[in-house]
Design brief:
With about 290 residues, the protein is an alpha+beta fold. The protein has six helices and twelve strands. It is globular.
Length: about 290
């Protein structure tokens, strides 16, 4: 990744991503996919499956396939200023993007489902034709990340809702070989160690999210923490200080929000062609 200094004029686009978790032999593991190197958003970086909200995601016809009411989904998202059809659409986008990028389908009769090979119906057609019941209750709103006004690793801004979910039994997560070229189940700390040793690339939201997940020993622990509070809104502030790009987070003295939104460092600095906290690797977990 290269540092970006452009300031977009368009508002952030709504987006959704799903942080899929499983309990591995050594503890909590998270599923990551490597974005295609030619992608115009975080090309070559490891991310959680996700993408922008499409107009089709907000079709009210999808409501008949939900396992919860539209009102319950809006309530779960905990965004008073977000209209119900958008809130529902974000849940659909989260499940659609997860299916498209990893083959995992959070729906009834999903055992053994795999990603589309280009000839199978798309997600929305499959939803209507197969009369699937979407398991919206399986994905828990976790955090809400809004790209800084001066993005550092992209020329675009997104308002991304991060959902957290346990990997469904009987399914296999695999990258699609289109938008994602590689994938891996990694312990959060291991993923960060690989980032630190330059084996993989990570963007700041993934760095901070993995540092947060590293504090959990199991899927149950992470899911319980997410269910215990509304998703915090994380609008990082990016600026140049002493010749280096700095990103600060809620709770930092330089951020307009004084209350901390998540555990981990309150600042990341662009050093050695990557973002890292003051104090080095161990500072991610202090």
């Amino acid at each position: 990744m290269e540092l970006n200094s452009d300031v977009p004029t368009l508002p952030p686009r709504d987006a959704a991503t799903v942080v899929m978790l499983r309990d591995g032999a050594q503890g909590l593991e998270v599923f990551l996919v490597k974005r295609h190197g030619l992608s115009d958003v975080l090309g070559g970086a490891y991310v959680f499956p996700g993408g922008k909200l499409d107009a089709a995601d907000c079709d009210v016809a999808h409501h008949a396939h939900f396992d919860r009411s539209a009102q319950a989904l809006r309530s779960a998202l905990a965004e008073a200023d977000t209209e119900e059809y958008i809130a529902c659409g974000l849940f659909v986008a989260a499940l659609r993007e997860t299916f498209e990028e990893s083959g995992v389908l959070f729906a009834s009769e999903a055992a053994g489902a795999q990603a589309s090979d280009g000839t199978a119906p798309d997600f929305h057609t499959r939803l209507a034709n197969q009369q699937l019941r979407l398991h919206t209750s399986a994905v828990q709103p976790w955090t809400r990340w809004i790209t800084p006004r001066m993005p550092s690793v992209s020329s675009k801004r997104f308002d991304t809702r991060f959902f957290i979910a346990a990997m469904p039994e009987g399914q296999l997560a695999v990258h699609d070989n289109v938008e994602a070229t590689e994938s891996a189940w990694l312990q959060p700390r291991t993923a960060l160690q690989q980032y630190w040793s330059r084996e993989i690339e990570l963007a700041p939201p993934q760095i901070m999210s993995l540092a947060q997940l590293a504090r959990h020993a199991s899927v149950a622990s992470a899911m319980a923490e997410a269910a215990s509070r509304p998703p915090p809104v994380i609008l990082p502030e990016a600026f140049n200080e002493n010749g280096e790009r700095t990103i600060c987070y809620p709770g930092d003295a330089g951020h307009p929000v004084s209350a901390r939104a998540m555990p981990g460092p309150l600042r990341l600095y662009w050093r050695n062609k990557r973002f890292e906290p003051e104090g080095g690797f161990d500072a991610l977990f202090a």
